[in-house]
Design brief:
about 260 residues; 2 strands; 9 helices; about 65% helix; two-stranded antiparallel sheet; mainly alpha
Length: about 260
């Protein structure tokens, strides 16, 4: 975690939160807002500064969600996350328009047409997120994997994948799915900065429980505010696709009280 500036009071607030020693004003909402502001807000989260990912591809799972990566400090940036979300948005839009098979063929992924759900989704994970070569890449890839689990956990066949993708698009909207992706990403960034320090102070069980509060706050806030918003028709490979993706990130941050 960086030192000085707004990070010092944030670290103190986070310690009070996990230890239960702060005032009632220290909540998951206030903590997350101050965390995003300390990271530089939208501009800070748009920059890509990820260092090399530690062995084991960065963060690992805990009962609360994600254990912070073990190296690289707190270099912020969502260039990998924005790129991954843009890829995901273009893919979902194409599936809704022309179907899964045509979308895969158009992307040069005809080798997985008709294959199992795991074959299809593994190929998409590699196509959209790429290797976990930096911390930013690793967290973006893991966030996409969690979206895959949320949407396609029951899929076993190729047909299941298409059916569940369309169901998710109908229920959440492409905007809502991308916002959920960014929610996962922000949570993982938070974990990377605080988890290990919290474990030292209060142990794994309490640290995990406190992180679960943060995770649930993010999840419920995004679902309540951004599910079902419409995305206008766009060429996702051009600047308009990038702009839509950045707008989703901007509106996601606004949920948490960060407007710039």
């Amino acid at each position: 975690m960086p030192k000085g500036g707004s990070w010092t009071p944030l670290k103190n607030e986070a310690t009070d939160f996990v230890q239960g020693t702060g005032s009632a004003d220290i909540t998951p909402a206030s903590l997350l807002t101050n965390f995003i502001r300390a990271a530089g807000g939208l501009a800070g989260l748009m920059r890509g500064h990820g260092g090399a990912a530690p062995s084991g591809s960065g963060a690992t799972r805990t009962s609360a969600g994600t254990k912070g990566a073990t190296g690289g400090g707190a270099a912020f940036g969502t260039s990998a996350a924005v790129g991954t979300a843009r890829n995901l948005g273009g893919f979902l839009s194409s599936v809704a328009d022309v179907g899964l098979e045509r979308t895969l063929r158009d992307r040069g992924l005809e080798s997985v047409v008709g294959k199992s759900a795991s074959d299809v989704t593994d190929a998409l994970l590699d196509e959209f997120a790429g290797p976990a070569s930096t911390l930013d890449n690793a967290l973006a890839r893991e966030s996409l994997a969690e979206i895959r689990e949320e949407i396609l956990s029951d899929a076993t066949t190729f047909e299941d994948v298409e059916k569940e993708l369309n169901a998710a698009i109908d229920e959440l909207g492409i905007f809502g799915i991308l916002a959920s992706f960014f929610g996962h990403y922000i949570f993982k960034m938070f974990c990377r900065n605080f988890y290990e320090e919290w474990v030292k102070k209060v142990g794994e069980a309490k640290a995990g429980s406190s992180l679960k509060e943060i995770e649930e706050y993010i999840r419920s806030s995004v679902r309540t505010r951004l599910t079902g918003q419409k995305v206008t028709s766009a060429d996702w490979k051009k600047d308009e696709g990038k702009q839509i993706t950045e707008n989703v990130l901007k509106e996601t941050l606004e949920i948490f009280g960060v407007t710039g």
